[in-house]
Amino acid sequence: MSLFDLQGQVAVITGSSRGIGRAIAERFAEAGAKVVISSRKSGPCEEVAGAINAARGNGTAIAVPANISSKEDLQRLVDETRKAFGKITALVCNAAANPFYGPMSDLPDDAFNKILQNNIVSNHWLVQMVAPEMIARKDGSVIIVSSVGGLKGSPVLGAYCISKAADMQLARNLAVELGPSNIRVNCIAPGLIRTDFARALWENPDVLKRVTATAPLRRIGEPDEIAGCAVYLAAPAGRFTTGQVFVIDGGATIA
Fold this sequence. Notes:
14% strand, Rossmann fold, alpha/beta
């Protein structure tokens, strides 16, 4: 068996209609997994699932729209996946929200609550919905897409950074709790990646120059450059890896 073979796996990937989530879904399917495409809007999910099925064969992908702030939507996502594929072997919590850009002194309560709910609590909900079958099977992989923002402070993304730091601790706690059942839980912490979600940052010339000036690779990342780490964590190659945070940022945090 290839160390990076995902044949027989079924992966639920939130926020997978574009950006990092889509890249992860495409690479999982390329490695042999069945994938579930999920984001808030049905149309983009169907489009991505259709493209994957056209490339990898019908039945490789399904679309299940869900709002991560709704516990009922997330339960339906899990239920529809099991109905279609019979199981869930990998969960990728990629969807996130950041409705506020500015100092925390100006942060409205509703925006703070939304960030914490969508970026932390929703991940907790999903894991609790999926974990029982992984425990029964004594196998599974959970991947939480965090951010390098969880490793440092920010004058304009404070609440988002807090939520991403919490995701790292969520992964560590879950790794301890679920490890005896052979379930691995890890975080990927991307730096600035060329996605629609981060467009306000990389389209700003001043921000782009500041981020890339001291980064050893002198550039921002592409969504596909995150996907390979996710494949590793879900594949046989990652079976002895748990509770870790994989920083993929072109070296920006070490320079």
